[in-house]
């Protein structure tokens, strides 16, 4: 899937690129699998901003994705669709009893293809199996962390993980970050690479496209007054080099450890930071 370039008819168009939608087979989503999506604009129930730089953007419905196909499911792919809520494409699948689902679309999925879920499913792209039934070395995505909970890892466009080894009740999976993690062998995963691989190469081109996505402008701390940001103030000299970079509230932003769930550290075989230290 290539990236579409534009003719430089305006300064904003020069260098602008967009996704290639040639792989999408329908523009009309299934109404029964849509849900209203309220825009919070980064505010909590008190109306206070808790996530900055959010607001506005195009209106959109949420697509209800099935992240845990029931074992024994066999369904036919009817359409590959665009999802405004995620970078990956989604596939509309239909079971023999007429039940519809949306699932994450792998790069190899095609209309008319039959996908299966369960221990007896064949080792083919798009099928969903327990990790214990997937061969070592396989490329996978949409991985569960707890059996039956649904996919939580490796869900964005172009991403994939690799099953590295099997030891007892756990398997070792190398995630896109480089981290090698132990996961229960009863957890399920889908085979293949998630589609829309070129998503990361799209160039926004103009500020307006960010506003369509609900992203509001970001102001650098070094151009603020000293009262508004730790980086602010100064007489025009070098900014931000005298001390570690911080948030507007004085919290460190680089090198500051944010990991809270220390109880899961025992499942990390190789840290994602290990490659950076070499």
Report on this model:
By secondary structure, the chain is mainly β. The chain has two domains: 3-199, OB fold (Dihydrolipoamide Acetyltransferase, E2P) (Beta Barrel), CATH 2.40.50.140; 225-278, Ribosomal protein L2, domain 3. 4% of the residues lie in helices and 24% in strands. It contains two helices and 17 strands. It has helices at residues 207-212, 274-277, and strands at residues 3-5, 17-19, 34-35, 62-63, 74-81, 90-95, 100-104, 114-116, 128-130, 139-141, 143-144, 151-153, 161-167, 170-174, 180-184, 188-191, 268-270. The strands form five sheets. The protein has a seven-stranded antiparallel sheet, with no helix packed on it. Strands 7-6-5-8 form a four-stranded antiparallel sheet, with no helix packed on it. The chain has a two-stranded antiparallel sheet with strand order 1-2. A hairpin with a 5-residue loop joins β14 (170-174) and β15 (180-184). The longest helix is centred in the C-terminal third of the chain and has 6 residues, at 207-212.
Write a concise keyword list for the protein shown above.
about 280 residues; mainly beta; OB fold (Dihydrolipoamide Acetyltransferase, E2P); Ribosomal protein L2, domain 3; seven-stranded antiparallel beta sheet; 2 helices; about 25% strand; globular
Portion of residues within helices:
under 10%
**CATH overall fold name of the largest domain:** OB fold (Dihydrolipoamide Acetyltransferase, E2P)
Q: Helix-strand pattern, N to C?
A: EEEEEEEEEEEEEEEEHEH
End-to-end Cα distance: 34 Å
Question: Could you report the average pLDDT, rounded to the nearest whole number?
Answer: 92
Number of helices: 2
**CATH domain class name of the largest domain:** Mainly Beta
The poorly predicted ranges are none
Oligomer state equals single chain
Number of domains: 2
The best one-word shape is: globular
Going by CATH, the architecture of the largest domain would be Beta Barrel
Structural classification: mainly beta
User: How many E-type strands?
Assistant: 17
- CATH homologous superfamily of the largest domain, by name? Nucleic acid-binding proteins
The neighbouring-strand order within the major sheet is 9-16-10-13-14-15-17
């Amino acid at each position: 899937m290539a990236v579409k370039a534009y003719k430089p008819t305006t300064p904003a168009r020069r260098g602008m690129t967009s996704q290639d939608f040639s792989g999408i087979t329908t523009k009309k989503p299934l109404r029964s699998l849509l849900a209203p999506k309220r825009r919070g604009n980064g505010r909590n129930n008190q109306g206070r901003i808790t996530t900055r730089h959010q607001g506005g953007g195009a209106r959109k419905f949420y697509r209800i994705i099935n992240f845990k196909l029931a074992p024994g499911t066999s369904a036919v792919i009817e359409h590959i669709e665009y999802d405004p809520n995620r970078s990956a494409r989604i596939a509309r699948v239909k079971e023999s009893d007429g039940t519809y689902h949306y699932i994450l679309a792998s790069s190899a999925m095609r209309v008319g293809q039959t996908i299966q879920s369960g221990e007896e499913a064949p080792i083919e792209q798009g099928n969903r199996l327990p990790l214990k039934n997937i061969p070592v070395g396989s490329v996978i995505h949409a991985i569960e962390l707890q059996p039956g909970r649904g996919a939580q890892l490796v869900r964005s466009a172009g991403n994939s993980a690799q099953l590295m080894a099997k030891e007892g009740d756990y398997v070792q999976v190398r995630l896109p970050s480089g981290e090698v993690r132990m996961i229960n062998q009863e957890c399920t995963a889908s085979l293949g690479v998630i589609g829309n691989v070129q998503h990361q190469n799209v160039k926004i081109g103009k500020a307006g496209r960010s506003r369509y996505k609900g992203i509001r402008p970001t102001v650098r701390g070094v151009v603020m007054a000293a009262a508004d940001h730790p980086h602010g103030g100064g007489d025009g000299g070098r900014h931000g080099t005298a001390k570690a970079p911080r948030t507007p509230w004085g919290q460190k932003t680089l090198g500051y450890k944010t990991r809270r769930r220390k109880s899961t550290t025992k499942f990390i075989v190789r840290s994602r930071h290990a490659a950076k230290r070499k």
